[in-house]
C-alpha cells in the first residue's frame, strides 16, 4: 500500500525568489495489485507526485507511507536501500548507462542493492520484453523503442512490489507503446505489483484501473476503470 497524506511540495525559498508549489495538500492511496495513471496538463505536478510517491523526492509537508513506513522521514541512506529493494522506476529519460551492455543495465539496480537475482532472471526479463537476443548489445545500438524495453526490464527484473513509470510510451510508436503497457499491466495482474504511471495519453491511461487527474498541484478528478480511451478523452475534455 502506498499512501500520501496531505502532501505538498514547494520549490524555491522565500528571500531568493517566488516559491512554486508543485503539489498542494494531495491525499491519495494506491492499493496493492492496482494500476493507476496520473494525468493533467503540463506543470500540474504529475512528475513531482510520482517522485514523492516513489521516495525519489521528499515532500515539503505531509507523509508518504509504504505500508506503515513513512519514507519521507527516513534518513537518506536507509531510504536509498529501501528504494532499491521495494521499487522499480522507469524514468522518462531512461537513464541507461552507455558503457554497459543491455544485460548489465538490466542487472544494475539489483547489483547496487546487493541482491542476488535468481539464475536466468535477467534473460527471462529480456525475453519478456522481446530482447532475448540483445543481451550483449549496447544502448547506442538499439532503437528508441528497444531502449525503452531495456528500461522496463530493468524495472521489473527483481519483481519489485511497486513500479513507477514516467511517460513510458511518450516517444514510442503506437504498437511499441501498447507492448510496453502490456508489460506493465502483466506485472500488476500476474505479480500483484502496484503500478503508478504518469501519462498525457488517454490511450495509455485506458490500460489503468484508475485515472487520477491533477491540476495546479491538486487532485481535481478520479476516474475508476476507464472503459475506453475515447470515453476517457471525452471526460477529460469536459473538465
Describe the overall structure.
The protein has 239 residues and is α/β, with parallel strands linked by helices. The chain is built from eight helices and ten strands. The protein has a six-stranded mixed beta sheet with strand order 6-7-8-3-9-10, sandwiched between helices. A four-stranded antiparallel beta sheet has the order 2-1-4-5, covered by helices on one side. Helix 3 (102-112) runs parallel beside helix 5 (144-156) and helix 4 (121-128) packs across helix 5. The longest helix is centred in the C-terminal third of the chain and has 18 residues, at 174-191.
- Share in β-strands: 25-35%
Total DSSP helices: 8
What's the oligomerization state?
Answer: single chain
Shape: globular
List the helices and strands and how they pair.
Layout: E1 2-11, E2 20-30, E3 35-39, H1 46-53, E4 61-66, E5 69-70, H2 76-86, E6 87-90, H3 102-112, H4 121-128, H5 144-156, E7 162-166, H6 174-191, E8 194-198, H7 202-205, E9 210-215, E10 218-224, H8 229-237
Parallel strand pairs: 3-8, 3-9, 6-7, 7-8
Antiparallel strand pairs: 1-2, 1-4, 4-5, 9-10
Helix pairs in contact: 3-5, 4-5, 5-6
Amino acid at each position: 500500500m502506498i499512501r500520501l497524506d496531505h502532501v505538498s511540495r514547494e520549490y524555491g525559498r522565500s528571500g531568493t525568489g517566488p516559491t512554486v508549489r508543485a503539489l498542494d495538500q494531495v491525499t491519495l492511496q494506491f492499493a496493492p495489485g492496482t494500476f493507476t495513471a496520473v494525468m493533467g496538463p503540463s506543470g500540474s505536478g504529475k512528475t513531482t507526485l510520482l517522485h514523492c510517491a516513489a521516495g525519489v523526492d521528499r515532500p515539503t509537508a505531509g507523509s508518504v507511507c509504504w505500508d506503515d513506513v513513512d519514507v519521507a522521514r527516513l534518513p537518506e541512506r536507509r531510504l536509498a536501500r529501501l528504494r532499491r529493494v521495494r521499487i522499480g522506476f522507469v524514468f522518462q529519460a531512461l537513464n541507461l548507462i552507455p558503457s554497459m551492455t543491455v544485460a548489465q543495465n538490466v542487472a544494475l539496480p539489483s547489483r547496487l542493492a546487493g541482491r542476488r537475482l535468481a539464475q536466468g532472471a535477467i534473460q527471462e526479463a529480456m525475453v519478456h520484453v522481446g530482447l532475448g537476443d540483445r543481451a550483449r548489445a549496447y544502448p547506442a545500438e538499439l532503437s528508441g523503442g528497444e531502449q525503452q524495453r531495456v528500461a522496463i526490464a530493468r524495472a521489473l527484473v527483481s519483481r519489485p512490489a511497486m513500479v513507477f513509470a514516467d511517460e513510458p510510451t511518450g516517444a514510442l510508436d503506437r504498437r511499441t507503446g501498447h507492448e510496453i503497457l502490456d508489460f506493465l499491466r502483466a506485472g500488476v495482474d500476474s505479480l500483484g505489483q502496484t503500478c503508478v504511471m504518469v501519462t498525457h495519453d488517454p490511450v495509455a491511461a485506458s490500460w489503468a484501473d484508475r485515472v487520477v487527474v491533477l491540476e495546479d498541484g491538486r487532485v481535481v478528478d478520479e476516474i475508476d476503470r476507464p472503459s475506453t480511451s475515447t470515453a476517457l478523452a471525452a471526460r477529460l475534455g469536459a473538465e
